[in-house]
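ok so i was messing around last nite and threw this chain in just to see what happens. nothing serious, just curious
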Amino acid sequence: MTSGPPDSSGPREDQNEYAETWGAPTKPEDVWFSQIKEKYGTLRVYLYGADKHIDGLVTMAEACSETTCEVCGNSGSLYGTGWYYTRCLPCWTKQGGNESDRPPPADW
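result:
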């Protein structure tokens, strides 16, 4: 295949290589979100029509939400008893929480 300029209508080699490796890229109109919510202090995303690349991005965002303070964006941990929040220690104590309010490790 020949590579054309970015505005050409012909296929480009890097696009074809991507499609062979990961499958054809998903069009935005093919993906729809059924739910985006917080559960147990972390992000949960439920969607349909995503390819491996989009699924990987969503999985990465969900994992990052477990260690990112939802107030300031700094590194954080899960805190709470009953209701869980991902906070850094300064934001958690500013909210009135104690450092001992961390939930036990669990596999949700």
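not much to say yet. The chain has two domains: 22-66, 69-103.
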